[in-house]
Protein backbone atom coordinates (compact mmCIF):
# COMPACT_ATOMS: atom_id res chain seq x y z
CA UNK A 1 0.00 0.00 0.00
CA UNK A 2 1.52 3.33 -1.04
CA UNK A 3 0.41 6.52 0.66
CA UNK A 4 -0.76 9.39 -1.51
CA UNK A 5 1.49 12.44 -1.56
CA UNK A 6 -0.30 15.64 -2.47
CA UNK A 7 2.06 18.52 -3.28
CA UNK A 8 1.60 21.67 -1.24
CA UNK A 9 1.37 25.19 -2.67
CA UNK A 10 4.55 27.08 -3.63
CA UNK A 11 6.20 28.58 -0.55
CA UNK A 12 9.08 30.57 0.89
CA UNK A 13 10.06 29.07 4.23
CA UNK A 14 12.53 31.02 6.33
CA UNK A 15 14.23 29.09 9.11
CA UNK A 16 15.48 31.45 11.79
CA UNK A 17 18.13 29.44 13.58
CA UNK A 18 18.78 27.63 10.28
CA UNK A 19 22.27 26.63 11.45
CA UNK A 20 21.16 25.31 14.84
CA UNK A 21 20.83 21.80 16.20
CA UNK A 22 17.09 21.45 15.61
CA UNK A 23 17.38 22.69 12.01
CA UNK A 24 20.25 20.29 11.37
CA UNK A 25 18.72 17.18 12.93
CA UNK A 26 15.02 17.59 12.22
CA UNK A 27 13.81 20.48 10.11
CA UNK A 28 16.18 20.36 7.11
CA UNK A 29 16.38 16.55 6.76
CA UNK A 30 12.58 16.48 7.16
CA UNK A 31 12.12 19.01 4.38
CA UNK A 32 14.43 17.00 2.17
CA UNK A 33 12.33 13.88 2.77
CA UNK A 34 9.19 15.76 1.74
CA UNK A 35 11.04 16.88 -1.39
CA UNK A 36 12.19 13.32 -2.07
CA UNK A 37 8.63 12.02 -1.77
CA UNK A 38 7.36 14.61 -4.25
CA UNK A 39 5.43 16.79 -1.86
CA UNK A 40 7.39 19.96 -2.53
CA UNK A 41 6.44 21.94 -5.64
CA UNK A 42 9.13 23.23 -8.01
CA UNK A 43 8.56 26.78 -6.80
CA UNK A 44 9.28 25.96 -3.15
CA UNK A 45 12.24 27.70 -1.55
CA UNK A 46 13.91 27.43 1.84
CA UNK A 47 15.92 30.28 3.30
CA UNK A 48 18.25 29.68 6.21
CA UNK A 49 18.58 32.72 8.46
CA UNK A 50 20.92 32.83 11.41
CA UNK A 51 23.61 34.84 13.08
CA UNK A 52 26.62 33.17 11.47
CA UNK A 53 28.23 34.81 8.47
CA UNK A 54 28.00 32.15 5.79
CA UNK A 55 27.61 32.18 2.03
CA UNK A 56 25.11 30.16 0.06
CA UNK A 57 27.64 27.47 -0.85
CA UNK A 58 28.64 27.13 2.81
CA UNK A 59 25.01 26.72 3.86
CA UNK A 60 24.36 24.13 1.19
CA UNK A 61 27.35 22.14 2.42
CA UNK A 62 25.96 22.34 5.95
CA UNK A 63 22.58 21.07 4.77
CA UNK A 64 24.12 18.32 2.60
CA UNK A 65 25.93 16.99 5.67
CA UNK A 66 22.78 17.19 7.76
CA UNK A 67 20.83 15.20 5.17
CA UNK A 68 23.57 12.61 4.97
CA UNK A 69 23.49 12.13 8.70
CA UNK A 70 19.76 12.31 9.36
CA UNK A 71 17.67 11.52 6.29
CA UNK A 72 17.80 7.74 6.48
CA UNK A 73 17.59 5.64 3.36
CA UNK A 74 16.45 8.46 1.08
CA UNK A 75 19.97 9.92 0.82
CA UNK A 76 20.38 9.99 -2.97
CA UNK A 77 23.13 12.36 -4.28
CA UNK A 78 21.12 13.55 -7.32
CA UNK A 79 18.04 14.23 -5.26
CA UNK A 80 20.10 15.99 -2.60
CA UNK A 81 21.68 18.27 -5.24
CA UNK A 82 18.25 19.10 -6.66
CA UNK A 83 16.98 19.87 -3.16
CA UNK A 84 19.96 22.09 -2.37
CA UNK A 85 19.02 24.26 -5.39
CA UNK A 86 16.04 25.38 -3.35
CA UNK A 87 18.17 26.70 -0.53
CA UNK A 88 19.61 30.08 0.17
CA UNK A 89 21.03 31.78 3.24
CA UNK A 90 20.81 35.22 4.78
CA UNK A 91 22.82 36.27 7.84
CA UNK A 92 20.50 38.15 10.20
CA UNK A 93 20.83 39.54 13.66
CA UNK A 94 17.56 38.84 15.42
CA UNK A 95 18.00 41.67 17.86
CA UNK A 96 19.72 44.21 15.58
CA UNK A 97 19.35 45.64 12.10
CA UNK A 98 21.79 43.52 10.10
CA UNK A 99 20.38 41.37 7.35
CA UNK A 100 16.70 42.29 7.57
CA UNK A 101 16.59 44.33 4.37
CA UNK A 102 18.38 41.51 2.55
CA UNK A 103 15.81 39.08 3.84
CA UNK A 104 12.98 41.36 2.71
CA UNK A 105 14.45 41.42 -0.81
CA UNK A 106 14.70 37.63 -0.88
CA UNK A 107 10.99 37.02 -0.27
CA UNK A 108 8.63 36.55 -3.22
CA UNK A 109 5.17 38.06 -3.45
CA UNK A 110 2.76 35.37 -4.59
CA UNK A 111 3.71 32.39 -2.49
CA UNK A 112 2.88 31.11 0.98
CA UNK A 113 5.30 32.65 3.46
CA UNK A 114 6.26 30.77 6.59
CA UNK A 115 8.82 31.68 9.25
CA UNK A 116 10.11 28.97 11.54
CA UNK A 117 11.44 30.44 14.80
CA UNK A 118 13.98 27.72 15.59
CA UNK A 119 15.76 29.94 18.08
CA UNK A 120 15.59 30.48 21.83
CA UNK A 121 12.25 31.94 23.04
CA UNK A 122 13.97 35.15 24.12
CA UNK A 123 14.30 36.01 20.41
CA UNK A 124 10.66 35.35 19.42
CA UNK A 125 9.52 38.90 20.16
CA UNK A 126 12.46 40.57 18.40
CA UNK A 127 11.98 38.48 15.26
CA UNK A 128 8.19 38.99 15.16
CA UNK A 129 8.70 42.73 15.50
CA UNK A 130 11.25 42.90 12.70
CA UNK A 131 9.20 40.75 10.33
CA UNK A 132 6.54 43.38 10.73
CA UNK A 133 8.77 46.45 10.71
CA UNK A 134 10.63 45.46 7.55
CA UNK A 135 7.33 44.39 5.91
CA UNK A 136 8.66 40.88 5.39
CA UNK A 137 5.54 39.06 6.57
CA UNK A 138 2.12 39.75 5.06
CA UNK A 139 -1.29 39.11 6.65
CA UNK A 140 -1.35 35.56 5.36
CA UNK A 141 2.17 34.70 6.56
CA UNK A 142 2.61 31.98 9.20
CA UNK A 143 5.05 31.79 12.05
CA UNK A 144 6.09 28.56 13.72
CA UNK A 145 7.31 28.75 17.29
CA UNK A 146 9.23 26.08 19.13
CA UNK A 147 8.98 24.91 22.68
CA UNK A 148 9.45 25.93 25.42
CA UNK A 149 6.50 28.27 25.13
CA UNK A 150 7.03 30.13 28.38
CA UNK A 151 8.30 29.03 31.74
CA UNK A 152 5.03 29.54 33.57
CA UNK A 153 1.63 31.06 32.88
CA UNK A 154 2.85 34.62 33.25
CA UNK A 155 5.69 34.26 30.76
CA UNK A 156 3.50 32.30 28.30
CA UNK A 157 0.90 35.05 28.51
CA UNK A 158 3.57 37.70 27.88
CA UNK A 159 4.87 35.73 24.90
CA UNK A 160 1.35 35.36 23.49
CA UNK A 161 0.83 39.09 23.91
CA UNK A 162 4.10 39.91 22.13
CA UNK A 163 3.31 37.67 19.18
CA UNK A 164 -0.24 39.01 19.05
CA UNK A 165 1.09 42.53 18.51
CA UNK A 166 2.24 41.49 15.06
CA UNK A 167 0.37 38.30 14.16
CA UNK A 168 -3.17 37.05 14.37
CA UNK A 169 -3.78 33.78 16.26
CA UNK A 170 -4.62 32.12 12.91
CA UNK A 171 -1.03 32.85 11.79
CA UNK A 172 0.69 31.38 14.87
CA UNK A 173 1.72 27.71 14.86
CA UNK A 174 2.97 26.60 18.30
CA UNK A 175 4.65 23.30 17.66
CA UNK A 176 4.45 20.25 19.88
CA UNK A 177 6.02 17.55 17.78
CA UNK A 178 4.17 14.82 19.69
CA UNK A 179 1.03 15.93 17.88
CA UNK A 180 2.73 15.23 14.56
CA UNK A 181 3.25 11.57 15.36
CA UNK A 182 1.28 9.13 13.26
CA UNK A 183 -0.05 7.21 16.26
CA UNK A 184 -1.28 10.32 18.00
CA UNK A 185 -3.45 11.13 15.03
CA UNK A 186 -4.45 7.51 14.90
CA UNK A 187 -5.69 7.85 18.45
CA UNK A 188 -8.31 10.23 17.09
CA UNK A 189 -8.99 7.98 14.11
CA UNK A 190 -9.50 4.98 16.38
CA UNK A 191 -11.68 6.83 18.84
CA UNK A 192 -13.86 8.73 16.41
CA UNK A 193 -13.71 6.58 13.28
CA UNK A 194 -14.96 3.36 14.90
CA UNK A 195 -18.04 2.37 16.79
CA UNK A 196 -16.12 -0.14 18.83
CA UNK A 197 -14.26 2.05 21.33
CA UNK A 198 -16.11 5.28 21.95
CA UNK A 199 -19.12 3.78 23.77
CA UNK A 200 -16.69 2.19 26.25
CA UNK A 201 -14.41 5.22 26.52
CA UNK A 202 -15.60 6.50 29.90
CA UNK A 203 -15.52 5.93 33.64
CA UNK A 204 -18.14 3.21 33.46
CA UNK A 205 -15.87 0.88 31.48
CA UNK A 206 -12.34 2.24 31.85
CA UNK A 207 -10.56 1.46 35.12
CA UNK A 208 -7.67 3.85 34.57
CA UNK A 209 -5.35 5.25 31.92
CA UNK A 210 -1.54 5.36 32.00
CA UNK A 211 0.56 7.74 29.94
CA UNK A 212 4.29 7.05 29.89
CA UNK A 213 7.12 8.88 28.18
CA UNK A 214 10.35 7.21 29.29
CA UNK A 215 13.76 8.09 27.93
CA UNK A 216 16.99 6.16 28.37
CA UNK A 217 19.18 9.22 27.86
CA UNK A 218 20.16 11.61 30.62
CA UNK A 219 20.23 15.38 30.28
CA UNK A 220 23.09 15.19 27.77
CA UNK A 221 24.57 18.53 26.86
CA UNK A 222 21.42 20.38 27.89
CA UNK A 223 22.19 20.26 31.62
CA UNK A 224 21.94 23.95 32.33
CA UNK A 225 18.69 24.40 30.44
CA UNK A 226 17.17 21.23 31.84
CA UNK A 227 18.01 22.08 35.42
CA UNK A 228 16.00 25.29 35.12
CA UNK A 229 13.12 23.34 33.69
CA UNK A 230 12.79 19.74 34.95
CA UNK A 231 10.48 16.95 33.80
CA UNK A 232 7.31 18.81 34.71
CA UNK A 233 8.03 21.84 32.53
CA UNK A 234 9.98 20.02 29.84
CA UNK A 235 7.60 17.10 29.28
CA UNK A 236 4.39 17.12 31.32
CA UNK A 237 3.14 20.64 30.65
CA UNK A 238 3.35 20.09 26.90
CA UNK A 239 3.79 16.56 25.52
CA UNK A 240 2.06 14.50 28.20
CA UNK A 241 -0.67 17.10 28.55
CA UNK A 242 -1.37 16.91 24.82
CA UNK A 243 -1.58 13.12 24.95
CA UNK A 244 -3.89 13.36 27.95
CA UNK A 245 -6.14 15.83 26.13
CA UNK A 246 -6.48 13.72 22.99
CA UNK A 247 -7.24 10.64 25.09
CA UNK A 248 -9.75 12.33 27.36
CA UNK A 249 -11.49 14.88 25.14
CA UNK A 250 -15.09 14.73 23.98
CA UNK A 251 -15.66 14.05 20.27
CA UNK A 252 -15.26 17.36 18.42
CA UNK A 253 -18.12 18.16 16.06
CA UNK A 254 -15.67 18.02 13.15
CA UNK A 255 -11.98 17.55 12.50
CA UNK A 256 -11.29 21.23 12.37
CA UNK A 257 -8.57 23.22 14.19
CA UNK A 258 -10.78 25.12 16.58
CA UNK A 259 -13.28 22.32 17.15
CA UNK A 260 -10.43 19.99 18.21
CA UNK A 261 -8.62 22.60 20.26
CA UNK A 262 -11.80 23.71 22.03
CA UNK A 263 -12.29 20.14 23.24
CA UNK A 264 -8.68 19.84 24.39
CA UNK A 265 -8.96 23.09 26.29
CA UNK A 266 -12.07 21.82 28.11
CA UNK A 267 -10.07 18.85 29.36
CA UNK A 268 -7.27 21.04 30.72
CA UNK A 269 -9.80 23.26 32.45
CA UNK A 270 -11.44 20.22 34.05
CA UNK A 271 -8.20 18.94 35.61
CA UNK A 272 -8.37 18.89 39.37
CA UNK A 273 -5.46 20.28 41.37
CA UNK A 274 -3.09 17.42 42.16
CA UNK A 275 -2.59 16.47 45.81
CA UNK A 276 0.99 16.69 47.03
CA UNK A 277 0.79 13.03 48.10
CA UNK A 278 -0.14 11.97 44.57
CA UNK A 279 3.01 13.18 42.86
CA UNK A 280 6.40 11.54 43.01
CA UNK A 281 9.52 13.30 41.82
CA UNK A 282 12.86 11.63 41.24
CA UNK A 283 16.47 12.27 40.32
CA UNK A 284 18.67 9.53 38.86
CA UNK A 285 21.60 8.65 41.02
CA UNK A 286 24.14 5.84 41.29
CA UNK A 287 27.77 5.56 42.32
CA UNK A 288 29.03 6.27 38.83
CA UNK A 289 26.52 8.76 37.47
CA UNK A 290 24.01 11.19 38.78
CA UNK A 291 21.69 13.95 37.71
CA UNK A 292 23.43 16.36 40.05
CA UNK A 293 26.78 15.71 38.35
CA UNK A 294 25.26 15.97 34.87
CA UNK A 295 23.75 19.38 35.56
CA UNK A 296 26.81 20.46 37.59
CA UNK A 297 24.63 21.63 40.42
CA UNK A 298 25.05 19.60 43.65
CA UNK A 299 22.18 21.50 45.30
CA UNK A 300 19.66 21.00 42.51
CA UNK A 301 16.10 20.14 43.53
CA UNK A 302 14.95 19.75 39.91
CA UNK A 303 13.29 16.47 38.95
CA UNK A 304 14.48 14.22 36.13
CA UNK A 305 11.44 12.00 36.77
CA UNK A 306 7.88 12.67 37.73
CA UNK A 307 4.83 10.44 38.20
CA UNK A 308 1.38 11.59 39.23
CA UNK A 309 -2.25 10.69 39.55
CA UNK A 310 -4.62 13.03 37.79
CA UNK A 311 -8.36 13.38 38.07
CA UNK A 312 -10.57 14.97 35.47
CA UNK A 313 -13.67 16.52 36.95
CA UNK A 314 -16.32 15.85 34.34
CA UNK A 315 -19.05 13.32 33.66
CA UNK A 316 -17.01 11.14 31.37
CA UNK A 317 -14.06 10.58 33.68
CA UNK A 318 -15.37 10.93 37.21
CA UNK A 319 -13.77 8.01 39.12
CA UNK A 320 -11.25 7.04 36.43
CA UNK A 321 -7.76 8.35 37.21
CA UNK A 322 -5.05 9.09 34.69
CA UNK A 323 -1.52 8.17 35.80
CA UNK A 324 1.29 10.03 34.09
CA UNK A 325 5.01 9.33 34.31
CA UNK A 326 8.05 10.56 32.48
CA UNK A 327 11.73 10.39 33.19
CA UNK A 328 15.27 10.31 31.97
CA UNK A 329 17.77 7.44 32.35
CA UNK A 330 15.03 4.89 32.51
CA UNK A 331 15.08 1.22 31.66
CA UNK A 332 13.65 1.58 28.17
CA UNK A 333 12.73 4.25 25.65
CA UNK A 334 8.99 3.99 25.53
CA UNK A 335 6.14 6.40 24.85
CA UNK A 336 2.70 4.92 25.19
CA UNK A 337 -0.83 5.38 26.35
CA UNK A 338 -2.48 2.42 28.05
CA UNK A 339 -6.24 2.27 28.46
CA UNK A 340 -7.03 -0.36 31.05
CA UNK A 341 -10.64 -1.45 30.91
CA UNK A 342 -12.56 -2.78 33.88
CA UNK A 343 -12.95 -6.46 34.51
CA UNK A 344 -16.25 -8.03 33.47
CA UNK A 345 -18.78 -7.51 36.27
CA UNK A 346 -19.30 -11.23 36.76
CA UNK A 347 -17.25 -14.19 35.70
CA UNK A 348 -19.07 -17.29 34.59
CA UNK A 349 -15.78 -19.19 34.70
CA UNK A 350 -14.02 -20.70 37.66
CA UNK A 351 -12.11 -18.27 39.80
CA UNK A 352 -8.54 -19.06 38.76
CA UNK A 353 -9.11 -19.11 35.00
CA UNK A 354 -6.53 -16.38 34.45
CA UNK A 355 -9.01 -13.96 32.98
CA UNK A 356 -8.09 -10.28 33.31
CA UNK A 357 -9.11 -6.91 31.99
CA UNK A 358 -8.71 -5.76 28.39
CA UNK A 359 -5.95 -3.31 27.70
CA UNK A 360 -5.58 -1.03 24.69
CA UNK A 361 -2.04 0.24 24.22
CA UNK A 362 -1.26 3.07 21.87
CA UNK A 363 2.50 3.06 21.23
CA UNK A 364 4.22 6.19 20.01
CA UNK A 365 7.64 4.59 20.19
CA UNK A 366 9.18 2.20 19.53
CA UNK A 367 7.21 0.41 16.76
CA UNK A 368 4.37 2.89 16.40
CA UNK A 369 1.13 1.00 16.62
CA UNK A 370 -1.57 -0.26 18.89
CA UNK A 371 -2.42 -3.48 20.58
CA UNK A 372 -5.45 -4.67 22.35
CA UNK A 373 -5.38 -7.60 24.72
CA UNK A 374 -8.39 -9.82 24.59
CA UNK A 375 -9.22 -12.86 26.66
CA UNK A 376 -9.65 -16.14 24.82
CA UNK A 377 -9.73 -19.78 25.69
CA UNK A 378 -6.37 -21.45 25.94
CA UNK A 379 -6.24 -23.91 23.04
CA UNK A 380 -6.31 -27.59 23.86
CA UNK A 381 -8.23 -29.98 25.99
CA UNK A 382 -7.20 -28.51 29.37
CA UNK A 383 -10.69 -27.33 30.25
CA UNK A 384 -11.99 -23.79 30.19
CA UNK A 385 -8.74 -21.98 30.93
CA UNK A 386 -8.52 -18.42 29.71
CA UNK A 387 -5.51 -16.49 28.45
CA UNK A 388 -4.92 -12.92 27.36
CA UNK A 389 -3.59 -12.49 23.83
CA UNK A 390 -2.72 -9.32 21.97
CA UNK A 391 -4.52 -8.27 18.83
CA UNK A 392 -1.45 -6.58 17.42
CA UNK A 393 -1.85 -3.60 15.14
CA UNK A 394 1.76 -2.66 14.50
CA UNK A 395 1.50 -0.35 11.52
CA UNK A 396 4.55 -1.80 9.78
CA UNK A 397 2.95 -5.23 9.69
CA UNK A 398 -0.59 -4.17 8.98
CA UNK A 399 0.11 -1.69 6.22
CA UNK A 400 3.32 -2.95 4.67
CA UNK A 401 6.79 -1.46 4.86
CA UNK A 402 6.08 1.46 2.57
CA UNK A 403 3.17 2.82 4.53
CA UNK A 404 5.07 2.24 7.74
CA UNK A 405 7.77 4.56 6.46
CA UNK A 406 5.61 7.46 7.55
CA UNK A 407 6.85 11.04 7.70
CA UNK A 408 8.57 12.14 10.85
CA UNK A 409 6.50 14.40 13.10
CA UNK A 410 8.41 17.54 12.11
CA UNK A 411 8.07 17.11 8.37
CA UNK A 412 4.36 16.42 8.64
CA UNK A 413 3.83 19.48 10.82
CA UNK A 414 5.82 21.77 8.52
CA UNK A 415 3.66 20.65 5.59
CA UNK A 416 0.58 21.43 7.71
CA UNK A 417 1.95 24.94 8.21
CA UNK A 418 2.27 25.41 4.45
CA UNK A 419 -1.25 24.04 3.99
CA UNK A 420 -2.49 26.43 6.66
CA UNK A 421 -3.89 23.69 8.89
CA UNK A 422 -3.58 24.47 12.63
CA UNK A 423 -5.31 21.36 13.98
CA UNK A 424 -2.11 19.79 15.29
CA UNK A 425 -0.72 22.99 16.80
CA UNK A 426 -1.40 24.42 20.22
CA UNK A 427 -3.57 27.47 20.57
CA UNK A 428 -2.47 30.30 22.86
CA UNK A 429 -5.24 29.76 25.41
CA UNK A 430 -4.46 26.04 25.56
CA UNK A 431 -0.83 26.68 26.46
CA UNK A 432 -1.77 29.21 29.11
CA UNK A 433 -4.34 26.85 30.62
CA UNK A 434 -1.77 24.06 30.80
CA UNK A 435 0.60 26.36 32.67
CA UNK A 436 -2.20 27.50 34.97
CA UNK A 437 -2.59 23.88 36.05
CA UNK A 438 1.17 23.19 36.35
CA UNK A 439 2.21 26.40 38.12
CA UNK A 440 0.72 25.67 41.57
CA UNK A 441 2.29 22.21 41.57
CA UNK A 442 5.75 23.61 40.81
CA UNK A 443 5.25 26.50 43.26
CA UNK A 444 4.41 23.97 45.98
CA UNK A 445 7.68 22.11 45.39
CA UNK A 446 9.64 25.34 45.46
CA UNK A 447 8.00 26.56 48.67
CA UNK A 448 8.52 23.28 50.48
CA UNK A 449 12.00 22.81 48.99
CA UNK A 450 11.02 19.23 48.20
CA UNK A 451 13.91 16.94 47.44
CA UNK A 452 13.26 14.42 44.65
CA UNK A 453 13.64 10.71 45.49
CA UNK A 454 16.74 9.05 44.06
CA UNK A 455 16.35 6.28 41.49
CA UNK A 456 18.85 3.99 39.88
CA UNK A 457 19.75 4.89 36.27
CA UNK A 458 18.31 2.21 33.98
CA UNK A 459 15.44 1.47 36.35
CA UNK A 460 11.73 2.20 36.16
CA UNK A 461 11.97 5.21 38.48
CA UNK A 462 11.73 5.63 42.25
CA UNK A 463 10.03 3.02 44.47
CA UNK A 464 7.60 5.68 45.59
CA UNK A 465 6.14 5.82 42.06
CA UNK A 466 5.31 2.11 42.29
CA UNK A 467 3.66 2.73 45.63
CA UNK A 468 1.57 5.51 44.09
CA UNK A 469 -0.10 2.84 41.97
CA UNK A 470 -0.04 0.00 44.52
CA UNK A 471 -2.01 2.13 46.96
CA UNK A 472 -4.84 2.06 44.43
CA UNK A 473 -4.45 -1.68 43.80
CA UNK A 474 -2.94 -1.02 40.37
CA UNK A 475 0.45 -1.25 38.77
CA UNK A 476 2.40 0.40 36.00
CA UNK A 477 2.70 -1.49 32.80
CA UNK A 478 6.15 -2.97 32.46
CA UNK A 479 8.62 -0.73 30.58
CA UNK A 480 9.49 -2.75 27.50
CA UNK A 481 11.27 -1.40 24.47
P1 LIG B 1 20.93 26.07 18.80
O1 LIG B 1 21.58 26.82 19.90
O2 LIG B 1 21.60 24.84 18.28
O3 LIG B 1 20.74 27.06 17.56
C1 LIG B 1 20.32 28.37 17.71
C2 LIG B 1 20.22 29.04 16.35
O4 LIG B 1 19.79 30.39 16.57
C3 LIG B 1 21.54 29.15 15.57
O5 LIG B 1 21.27 28.97 14.20
C4 LIG B 1 21.99 30.58 15.83
O6 LIG B 1 22.77 31.13 14.78
C5 LIG B 1 20.66 31.28 15.90
N1 LIG B 1 20.75 32.52 16.68
C6 LIG B 1 21.07 32.67 17.99
N2 LIG B 1 21.06 33.99 18.32
C7 LIG B 1 20.74 34.67 17.21
C8 LIG B 1 20.57 36.05 16.90
N3 LIG B 1 20.73 36.99 17.81
N4 LIG B 1 20.23 36.38 15.64
C9 LIG B 1 20.05 35.43 14.69
N5 LIG B 1 20.18 34.12 14.91
C10 LIG B 1 20.53 33.74 16.15
O7 LIG B 1 19.44 25.78 19.29
P2 LIG B 1 18.49 24.56 18.84
O8 LIG B 1 18.82 23.38 19.66
O9 LIG B 1 18.48 24.43 17.37
O10 LIG B 1 17.07 25.07 19.38
C11 LIG B 1 16.30 26.06 18.73
C12 LIG B 1 14.95 26.17 19.41
O11 LIG B 1 14.27 24.94 19.29
C13 LIG B 1 15.02 26.46 20.91
O12 LIG B 1 13.90 27.24 21.27
C14 LIG B 1 14.88 25.08 21.53
O13 LIG B 1 14.34 25.13 22.83
C15 LIG B 1 13.91 24.45 20.57
N6 LIG B 1 13.97 22.99 20.54
C16 LIG B 1 15.12 22.35 20.19
C17 LIG B 1 15.14 20.96 20.16
C18 LIG B 1 16.39 20.20 19.72
O14 LIG B 1 16.31 19.00 19.63
N7 LIG B 1 17.49 20.87 19.46
C19 LIG B 1 13.99 20.23 20.48
C20 LIG B 1 12.83 20.91 20.83
C21 LIG B 1 12.83 22.30 20.86
Describe the structure.
- It catalyses: D-glucose 6-phosphate + NADP(+) = 6-phospho-D-glucono-1,5-lactone + NADPH + H(+).
- The active site is at 239 (proton acceptor).
- It comes from Maritimibacter alkaliphilus HTCC2654.
- Keywords: Carbohydrate metabolism, Glucose metabolism, NADP, Oxidoreductase.
- It holds the Pfam family G6PD_N.
- This protein is an alpha/beta fold.
- The chain folds into two domains: 11-146, NAD(P)-binding Rossmann-like Domain (Rossmann fold, 3-Layer(aba) Sandwich); 179-406 and 428-470, 2-Layer Sandwich (Dihydrodipicolinate Reductase, domain 2).
- Helix content is 36%, strand content 19%.
- The strands form two sheets. It has a nine-stranded mixed sheet, sandwiched between helices.
- A hairpin with a 3-residue loop joins β12 and β13 (369-377).
- It is globular, with a radius of gyration of 24 Å.
- The chain starts with 10 loop residues before the first strand and ends in an 11-residue tail after the last helix.
- Bound molecules: nicotinamide-adenine-dinucleotide (NAD).
- Nicotinamide-adenine-dinucleotide binds next to α1.
Task: Describe the structure concisely for a colleague.
The protein is α/β, with parallel strands linked by helices and 481 residues long.
Amino acid sequence: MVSRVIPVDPFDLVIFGGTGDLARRKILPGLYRRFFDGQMPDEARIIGAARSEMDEAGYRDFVRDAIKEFSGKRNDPNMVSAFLEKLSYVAVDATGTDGWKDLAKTMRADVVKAYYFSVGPSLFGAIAERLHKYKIADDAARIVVEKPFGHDRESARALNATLAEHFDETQIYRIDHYLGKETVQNLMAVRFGNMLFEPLWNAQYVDHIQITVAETVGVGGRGEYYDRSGAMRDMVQNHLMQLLCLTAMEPPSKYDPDAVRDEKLKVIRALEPVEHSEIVRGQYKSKSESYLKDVENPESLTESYVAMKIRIANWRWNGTPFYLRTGKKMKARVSEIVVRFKEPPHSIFEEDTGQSANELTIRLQPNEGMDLTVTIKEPGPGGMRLIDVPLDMTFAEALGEEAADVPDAYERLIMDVIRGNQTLFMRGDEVEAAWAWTDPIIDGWTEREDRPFPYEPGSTGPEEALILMHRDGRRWRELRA
